[in-house]
Design a protein that fits this description.
Family: Belongs to the non-flavoprotein flavin reductase family.
Shape: globular
CATH topology: Pnp Oxidase, Chain A
Number of strands: 11
CATH architecture: Roll
Strand content: 35-45%
InterPro entries: Flavin_Rdtase-like_dom, NADH-dep_flavin_reductase, Split_barrel_FMN-bd
GO molecular function: FMN binding; riboflavin reductase (NADPH) activity
Radius of gyration: 15 Å
Largest sheet: 7 strands, antiparallel
Order of helices and strands: HEEEEHEHEEEEEE
Organism: Komagataeibacter melaceti
Pfam families: Flavin_Reduct
Length: 167
Amino acid sequence: MDEQARKTALRMIPYGLYVLTAGTKETAIASATINWVTQTSFAPPLLALGIKTDSALYTAVRKSGDLVLNILGQGQGGLAFAFFKPAEYADGKLGGQDVHWAKNGAPVLTSVPAAVELKVRHVVELGDHHTFIAEVTNVHLNQQISGRPDEAVLHMKDLGEKVFYGG
């Protein structure tokens, strides 16, 4: 297979950007910007998320099974970049961002348009990112969404011509 053609073809799949959080005030909190997310079922509502196996986030999600998918909105590219590296929880903030706490105990970024609480139901252990199948247990709309909800989200392409993931 032509490696450049593979990368080009796989990078044609559109990706939204999210900050995934896990852990609680009483345990270690981990977070990371992720982009491999899709809904896989209506009833029950399930999402599939790709999480890098050598990350602190992976360890925290495996341990707790509870997480929050913080959906980044248009204009929040700086927030995506901020969580590309490990973020510290200090003085009531995660990576310098205000949070409130989900029912499952994980942090919700207050600045994002929406967040989804999740409970891990299954893990597919293949490749350098494992696929977590997680059930939606609660949602947070932190701001009014007008127009098409899918147009309110930050996409990988919004970060610039040279920012890619995948392929």
